Amino acid sequence: MPADRLTRTAPAPGAGIVHLGLGAFFRSHGAIYTEEAIAASGGDWGITGVSLQSTHMRDALTPQGGAYIALELGPEGEVARRVEVVRDVLVAREDPGAVLALMADPATKIVSLTVTEKGYCHEPATGALNHTHPDVIHDIAAPLPVSAPGFLVRALQMRRAAGLAPFTVLTCDNLPSNGAVVRGVVLALAREIDPRLAGWIEAEGRFPSTMVDRIAPATKPEDIARVAALTGFHDAAPVVHEPFRQWVIEDSFVGDRPDWGAVGAQMVDDVTPYEHMKLRMLNGTHSPLAYLGYLAGHETVADCMADPVFARFVDRLWDAEIIPAVEAPPGVSLADYAAALHKRYDNPAIRHRTWQIAMDGSQKLPQRILGTVSESLAAGRSTPGLILAIAAWMRYVSGVDLNGAPIDVRDPLADRMKALSDAADTPEDKVAALLGLREVFPPDLAALLGGPVAASYALLADEGVHKAMEVAAR
User: Fold this and answer.
1) Can you say whether the dihedral through the CA atoms of 18, 21, 23, 26 is positive or negative?
2) CATH topology of domain 272-472
3) Is 467 helix (H, G, I), strand (E, B) or coil?
4) Residue 216 near residue 28, CB atoms below 8 Å
5) How would DSSP label each residue in 148-164?
6) What band does 2 get if pLDDT is binned at 50, 70 and 90?
7) For residue 281, which of 77, 153, 311, 318 sits 20 to 30 Å off, Cα-Cα?
8) Model-level pTM greater than 0.85?
9) Domain limits of the chain?
10) What is the pLDDT of residues 37-81, one digit of tens each?
């Protein structure tokens, strides 16, 4: 007998937050923190989600009144909870005017975002607005935007015209100095539209930086079936996640905010040490595991960690290459943090696919890996494991694995990277061509990487992933 459709059991909380990019991560992380903060301290902090393009989340959640199941997957078992903090879901491409009206409504105090690195229309190597991005060009000329920065700027423009205070812009994406990056992108776009608007945003707006952490793989059909068997309800949009969570937030808001600190978020003056630690130690090993793991035939991070060569390799990355380039946050042992990450990666209940983590690598590499490599080279430290990870990324984006099988590369630069790789004959030429991507590699760093990355690229092709990893770990 089919399970009943999940639905809301209590009235939605009052409106307070608009969230752009209502995907699995935010629904397993920020939404749960917010629901718990309302329960602990009250407040109208209900969330209206906005999908910038896809109708999937709206179509899945609307019949459920915004409710969904969050399924915690730990080594000891599964724990399901019903989450009802989402009030509604809009689709921006269908009705951008409705989204702008919602963001400009006085009830909206915070606009938060998880739109991935590529969603900010910026240059990953510099953090600056990409003025040649088609969405940016459109949003400068048209009053109804299509990009996340465009919606922020046009909604703030409406609030200024109405005599309202700006909303706080709270990015929850994995960008170094993410608040500052988003502030810079918004101000640059606003200056193109109206310099006076930019001045108002610069003076009155707030863009706190954050560090977010919880492994939440993309929901798969078998997860929907698992939730139905466990709860007795059909949920078209459940989320699955690990037990661990962390949220560090710069406490700089235009006005009120939810009492996230009461439910475990860390409200701090400076997020930078936490952000660098997470980006370089978690994301900075997730990406090597993704590219090397995929090329080795491992489907998930847990599969990688069950391979002794991979487990030794990632431990060495932390100990010898990454930790020396990380400043520990107050009271934090980086060795203990690495050990905790190793344990989280081992969790067999979390099926975090290497292919999923590998997506959008051109946007991720500068933040996750290249910063560590650049600082290490400047300090006279070698980074053979991270150099191998760069080579593995280059092989991955060529669109062909080590056995000649095609790879479905999902990246905003996918076609360009494949063309560059296909046009070159030797490993040295392929590496040189990809190092010429100025959106990814600053010229000074690219000049230092040619020989070492080419050697690793050739070693991968000639000897395979495991041999290359063993060489890098010597």
Assistant:
1) negative
2) N-(1-d-carboxylethyl)-l-norvaline Dehydrogenase; domain 2 (1.10.1040)
3) helix
4) yes
5) HHHHHHHHHHHHHHTTP
6) low
7) 77
8) yes
9) 4-268, 272-472
10) 999 999 999 999 999 999 999 999 999 999 999 999 988 889 999
Separation CA 170–CA 172 (nearest Å): 6
SS3 call for 241: strand
CA distance 315 to 334: 12
Show the tokens assigned to 244.
């661990």
Distance CA 188, CA 201 (A): 11
Q: Within 3-84, where are the H helices? A: 24-28, 30-41, 56-61
Handedness of CA 225, 227, 229, 231 (dihedral sign): negative
User: Cα separation of 380 and 183, whole Å?
Assistant: 34
Residues 186-236 pLDDT 10s: 999 999 999 999 999 999 999 999 999 999 999 999 999 999 999 999 999
Contact 344, 318 (CB under 8 A): no
- Domain 4-268 CATH (choose: 3.40.50.720, 3.40.50.300, 3.30.1510.10, 3.40.50.880): 3.40.50.720
* DSSP assignment letter at 67: -
The answer to whether 456 touches 472, Cβ cutoff 8 Å, is yes
DSSP sequence for 389-449: HHHHHHHHHTTB-TTS-B-----TTHHHHHHHHHH--SHHHHHHHHHT-TTTS-HHHHHHH
CA atoms within 13 A on the CB side of 261: 7
HEC secondary structure over 163-185: CCCCCEEEECCCCCCHHHHHHHH
